[in-house]
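Data availability (excerpt). The following record was deposited with the supplementary files.
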Amino acid sequence: MDNGGVNATRIPASTPNGHLPEFYSVAQHSVLCSQLVAPEFAFEALMHDAAEAYCQDIPAPLKTLLPDYQRIETFVDGLIRFKYNLPPKQSAVVKYADLTMLATERRDLDIDDGMAENAILREGKAHEH
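Predicted structure:
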């Protein structure tokens, strides 16, 4: 990667208040994801958040409220996938590694982003109907 990849290594991964006790980058997250998958998926896992080098990392709850941002990020992701001969859609194994890392980060970095509570509320509402 060129300048965009370098920039991503300087931007801390998103947290609700934007601060962690120690620096933790999107690049670190991606490297760790790449280590969770079989070798044939490692490069795709390494690159799974590459669009954030150009579009920035936005927390998922906010991202859902920004359809224009989502379209731009999807477009940039598609360009990166094409350039590096990655599958057009993220592989299930890479998505699972990403979710595993996100859960691990929330636990190990003590991130309370309200996502657990939101999931519990959604689950409860689903059972009410």
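Summary of structural features: The CA atoms of residues 64 and 70 lie 8 Å apart.
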